[in-house]
Amino acid sequence: MYLNSTKVEGSDKVQGLGFGGMIGEFRLWIDNDIDTKSYLRPKDKTYEIGYIAGKNNTLNLQRIEIIVFGGEEGLAER
């Protein structure tokens, strides 16, 4: 899993959330530019081959649910 939510000047680290595979070749990628750069792939080096959502590589997100643990103390430490 890869998560980067912060833009850092001069950094080549992409902003987004990725599962499986490696940077640039994730199985599931939710980009900071969610509508045009997010994708699904049928295979990667982590999971069994096969599509996880339909038979194409487009990602049409309707809703994202975010669950956070740690309450106010966790937020303050972040």
Structure, described:
The protein has 78 residues and is α+β, with helices and mostly antiparallel strands. It contains 2 helices and 4 strands. It has helices spanning 34-37, 71-77, and strands at 2-4, 16-22, 25-31, 39-40. It starts with a strand and ends with a helix. The model has no long low-confidence stretch (mean pLDDT 82).
Jot down its keywords:
single chain, alpha+beta, four-stranded antiparallel beta sheet, 2 helices, 4 strands
Chain-wise SSE layout:
Blueprint: E1 2-4, E2 16-22, E3 25-31, H1 34-37, E4 39-40, H2 71-77
Antiparallel strand pairs: 1-2, 2-3, 3-4
Briefly summarize what is shown.
Helix content is 14%, strand content 24%. By secondary structure, it is an alpha+beta fold.
